[in-house]
Design goal:
Helix content: 25-40%
Mean pLDDT: 94
Number of helices: 8
Structural class: alpha/beta
Order of helices and strands: EEHHHEHEHEHEHEEH
Radius of gyration: 17 Å
Distance between the termini: 11 Å
Number of strands: 8
Length: about 220
């Protein structure tokens, strides 16, 4: 019999916060600066996930443009600088996030964030939306770990929280979250409202709204 879930690893973008509009706004800023058109938000799901560099490459590829490694490096810097100043203009937490996190915290559920967003930006976004207080650890991307779907970030968190794998649940909106979690034998929840798509059979649970987490975690 599976143990009660005592710890949750949350993805950030597309799971806790609807950050797509500001990410797209930043990408479109770069595209326009490079004499390309803006991309409609209808294509957002094809652009996000995997960090700034990958989003930039996808954006230029949308117009059948390749970018040199040297050019990519400067574009990433410009992207991060612009996004840092505009990361919470149009973004907002998904409905029910704050209330559900509060309930989980009151039940002494250990909660962390595991995101491919840069560490500084992840902390900034969570602080601006007053969500950082709910998390024991916020782990964003850095030079220390390979990005999800590699399992390094999750392995680090498992060692830090000191729970067994069957007491931990990964919650996210894409294969980047579910693949490494399954590899490490964590339980998984896929959020249907985010940016990504997966084979639903790969997950233990699929939810349509954030508050559905309460039914799974608090009754597990």
């Amino acid at each position: 019999m599976k143990k009660k879930i005592k710890c949750i690893f949350f993805d950030l973008d597309g799971t806790l916060v609807d950050s797509g509009p500001d990410l797209l706004k930043t990408l479109n800023h770069l595209l326009v600066q490079n004499n390309l058109s803006e991309i409609s938000i209808d294509y957002l799901g094809n652009l996000v996930g995997g960090g700034a560099e990958l989003m930039i490459k996808r954006g230029f590829s949308f117009f059948n443009k390749n970018v040199s490694q040297k050019k990519t490096k400067s574009l990433v810097k410009e992207f991060l600088d612009y996004y840092k100043e505009n990361c919470s203009v149009f973004s907002e937490p998904y409905k029910g996030v704050s209330n559900t996190l509060k309930k989980l915290k009151l039940k002494n559920i250990c909660m962390t964030v595991c995101t491919n967003k840069k560490q500084e930006l992840a902390e900034k976004v969570l602080k601006e939306f007053k969500l950082e207080k709910y998390f024991d650890i916020i782990l964003g991307s850095s030079t220390l770990f390979k990005l999800k779907p590699h399992s390094e970030m999750l392995e680090y968190l498992i060692n830090k929280v000191d729970f067994s794998s069957n007491e931990i649940c990964m919650i996210g909106d894409s294969d980047n979250d579910i693949i490494p979690a399954r590899k490490l034998n964590l339980r998984t929840i896929f959020v249907n409202y985010g940016y990504g798509e997966i084979e639903k059979s790969q997950c233990d649970f699929v939810i349509d709204q954030f508050s559905d987490i309460e039914k799974i975690i608090l009754k597990s």
